[in-house]
Amino acid sequence: MSQVTRRIVRELHDEPHLEGRRITVQFLKEQVEERGLSPRTVADRHDLDVADVYRALTYYHDHPEEMRTIERQRQSAIEEHDHLTTDPDSVRD
């Protein structure tokens, strides 16, 4: 397991993530608060210090407006590109 304590930075797609990794604050929050995984489990699965997971959760809750803006941008991008995806039910043999 990594013993490097990472800072939260905004270098990747202008979204807060762990420094030196592509793991976003939003992803870590979803794993813990929406999927119900423990911070230790998430840390182990992604080779992180458990402190990094807690740091991301703290960042998420300390910056609610920023995180809501990011969530709206993600949803908008999904809707904007939805026409590019294929519905399995519409594909014929």
TrEMBL record:
User: Gene3D superfamilies in the record, alphabetically?
Assistant: Winged helix-like DNA-binding domain superfamily/Winged helix DNA-binding domain (1.10.10.10)
Name the segments for region: Disordered. 66-93
> What Pfam families does this protein's entry cite?
DUF433
Q: What is this protein called?
A: DUF433 domain-containing protein
Task: Tell me the lineage of the source organism.
Answer: Archaea, Methanobacteriati, Methanobacteriota, Stenosarchaea group, Halobacteria
